Known about the structure:
The protein is mainly α. The chain has one domain (4-298). Helices cover 77% and strands 0% of the residues. The chain has helices at 4-19, 21-26, 32-53, 60-65, 67-87, 93-100, 103-114, 121-138, 149-171, 177-198, 209-234, 239-245, 248-259, 267-298. Helix 3 packs across helix 5, helix 3 (32-53) crosses helix 11 (209-234) and helix 5 (67-87) packs antiparallel against helix 9 (149-171). The longest helix has 32 residues, at 267-298. The chain is globular, with a radius of gyration of 19 Å. The chain starts with a helix and ends with a helix. The model has no long low-confidence stretch (mean pLDDT 86).
Amino acid sequence: MKKLKLVRIEYIIAMIIYGTCGIISKYIDVSSGFIVFSRAIIGSIIIIIYLLIRRKKIDFVSIKKNLLWLILSGACIGCNWMCLFSSYNYVSVSVSSLCNYLAPALFIIAAIILFKEKISIKKIICVVVALFGIILLSGIINSNNNVNFLGIILGLGAAIFYLGLLVFNKLIGEIDPFVKALIELMVVSVVTAPYAFISLDYTKEIFSLNNALLLITLGIIHTGLAYILYLDSMFYLPSQSIAIFSYFEPVIAVLLSYFLLKEDLSIYGWIGGALILGSTLIYEILNERERKKNELNQS
Length: 299
């Protein structure tokens, strides 16, 4: 079994890579649709190569059983990426990333409505705090802050599709996570292909060396490699560690947005971002405690 320290490093590296996606996209002069399509195609190829190297067998029976949920989850990933990368064009990477990270709070509401789950008052407070955080982040309270609301709406759209991904993943049965990732990425490429090629500016996007290199980097490093590190480490990490380390992604995005792109947040934005991340982190910790308590009661 892998050493826990090495696994933690793998997972943290994956989160750091994911956190730099927005920064990379800022330097790619192509439509968001083509970025997502390229990322999905290249990422799929990398995962296929990984499956061949590891000689993993593809269980087509499991794929058939879960095909509907795999298609829907893949569509949600594609739409999430489309909204998120489009949002980067209108607001800062930090604002887009923090809007996207509202999804875990929204999942609590979905769990009550769709799965009839009983939610503690502490979790409800987490939702309220996160929603208040998004109000602060949006700039509504700070009248001196000119905020592009289209960027905020796209960021919240990304969060809604992220929520859809969480819901459909909950419905997917037993299947190899690498095969699941491959099917989802293939679905992403199909879903985004029409818009990708309709919106493509053939005069500049195809022949730009800078765009080509960054798209390849986004596909190989930020999709293929990041997926492999992420999925491989999840086999060994405790779920509470996964919940906590996952917050490296938005934190890295906010810090790089501030230091590299010079995209500053207002004081309300910083407070709002802290409320969103803090409330969702507390939710994850509460969730893990409940899971452990239920396991003890059943044993």
